[in-house]
């Protein structure tokens, strides 16, 4: 059952409103405020128009826009507790709904962060995340340094947030699930060339981890008429697509998921309970299964010696080819 995508929620269902927000044009600080006000109005309107919605999810870049010429302008960045987030938190409180939001955040110690924040229905911050894997070489953001946090959400959900390119690395969704997330949110600003990869990774991230995935990107053209894809998507724990959006800017795609179903699958599935079986290989033959770490790349990451066989032949190792300057931060030894 899908409860007509949340119109008639199934008992225990979490109803999502995934906003295919249109690409904003940001030229001056006042544009940040007006964009945040518009998004806040959409939060309130979504809850008013469909009272069953529990969580409204805005895509990456929905406040700061996609123009790289503005990204490193300090006057066009946001703060975690700045006026833009205050507007959005107030909207969540006033509407009585949870919200997930994106900001390009000032970092006084270096390059800005690409951050995501989940606010509860009382207007309080419940999760704060810094994008772990910026879309290099195109994005100049500092890599996140807080790991992948998880928080308790409405309707028995355990929420995690990963951002855009994070979802292309299967380790990110696995980390979220390993920490207990049964609903993994993914916000993005992807354009149409990424559409196929977007679809299959949303599905595989769900199936690999017996988690629901709920993903949404910006929609519509930027100043160069390059379109972001929108295409909100919700996947069941077996990777089946429950709901899929389109490229319509500002369309709110609704869906329901039942977090307890993910919890049940993780406890009761035999075959394909992959997140459990990763750490219990061959338990039919060996009591408890093998619990070693046979994966060289994992061992090398922990040891700080991760190196590909073709490492010396990789062409793009900084952002200079994409028009950015040389990195200012020296890699820690």
Count of alpha and pi helical runs: 9
Q: From the helix content, strand content and strand pairing, which structural class follows?
A: alpha/beta
* Low-confidence runs of at least 5 consecutive residues: none
Q: For the largest beta sheet, what order do the strands appear in spatially?
A: 5-4-3-2-1-14
Alpha carbon gyration radius: 20 Å
Largest sheet: 6 strands, mixed
Question: How many strands?
Answer: 14
**Chain-averaged pLDDT:** 97
Please outline the helices and strands:
Layout: H1 3-6, E1 14-20, H2 29-49, E2 55-57, H3 68-71, H4 83-95, E3 98-105, E4 113-119, E5 125-130, E6 150-152, E7 158-163, H5 170-178, E8 183-188, H6 195-209, E9 212-217, E10 219-221, E11 227-229, E12 233-235, E13 241-244, E14 251-257, H7 259-268, H8 274-277, H9 296-303
Parallel strand pairs: 1-2, 2-3, 7-8, 8-9
Antiparallel strand pairs: 1-14, 3-4, 4-5, 6-7, 9-12, 10-11, 12-13
Task: Name a few traits of the molecule.
333 residues, alpha/beta, 9 helices, 22% strand, 14 strands
Give an account of the 3D structure:
With 333 residues, this protein is of the alpha/beta class. The chain has nine helices and 14 strands. It has helices at 3-6, 29-49, 68-71, 83-95, 170-178, 195-209, 259-268, 274-277, 296-303; strands at residues 14-20, 55-57, 98-105, 113-119, 125-130, 150-152, 158-163, 183-188, 212-217, 219-221, 227-229, 233-235, 241-244, 251-257. A six-stranded mixed sheet has the order 5-4-3-2-1-14. Strand 7, helix 5 and strand 8 (183-188) form a beta-alpha-beta unit. Helix 2 runs parallel beside helix 4 (83-95) and helix 5 (170-178) packs parallel to helix 6. The protein starts with a helix and ends in a 30-residue tail after the last helix. The model has no long low-confidence stretch (mean pLDDT 97).
């Amino acid at each position: 059952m899908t409860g007509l995508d949340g119109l008639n929620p199934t008992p225990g269902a979490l109803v999502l409103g995934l906003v295919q927000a249109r690409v904003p044009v940001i030229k001056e600080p006042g544009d940040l405020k007006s964009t945040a006000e518009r998004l806040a109005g959409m939060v309130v309107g979504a809850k008013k128009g469909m009272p069953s919605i529990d969580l409204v999810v805005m895509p990456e870049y929905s406040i700061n826009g996609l123009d790289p010429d503005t990204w490193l302008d300090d006057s066009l960045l946001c703060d975690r507790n700045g006026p833009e987030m205050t507007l959005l938190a107030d909207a969540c409180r006033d509407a009585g709904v949870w919200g997930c939001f994106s900001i390009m955040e000032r970092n006084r110690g270096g390059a800005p962060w690409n951050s995501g924040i989940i606010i509860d229905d009382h207007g309080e911050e419940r999760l704060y995340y810094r994008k772990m894997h910026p879309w290099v070489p195109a994005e100049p953001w500092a890599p996140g340094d807080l790991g992948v946090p998880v928080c308790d959400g409405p309707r028995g959900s355990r929420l995690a947030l990963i951002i855009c390119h994070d979802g292309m690395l299967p380790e990110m969704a696995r980390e979220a699930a390993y920490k207990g997330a049964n609903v993994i949110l993914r916000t993005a600003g992807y354009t149409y060339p990424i559409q196929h990869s977007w679809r299959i990774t949303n599905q595989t991230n769900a199936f690999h981890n017996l988690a629901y995935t709920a993903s949404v990107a910006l929609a519509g053209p930027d100043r160069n008429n390059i379109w972001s894809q929108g295409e909100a998507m919700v996947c069941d724990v077996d990777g089946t697509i429950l709901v899929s959006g389109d490229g319509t800017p500002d369309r709110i795609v609704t869906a329901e998921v039942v977090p307890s179903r993910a919890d049940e699958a993780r406890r009761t599935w035999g075959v394909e309970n992959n997140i459990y079986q990763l750490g219990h290989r061959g338990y039919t033959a060996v009591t408890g299964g093998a619990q070693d770490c046979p994966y060289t790349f994992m061992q090398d990451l922990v040891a700080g010696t991760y190196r590909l066989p073709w490492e010396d032949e990789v062409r793009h190792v900084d952002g200079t080819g994409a028009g950015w300057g040389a990195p200012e931060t020296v890699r820690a030894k």
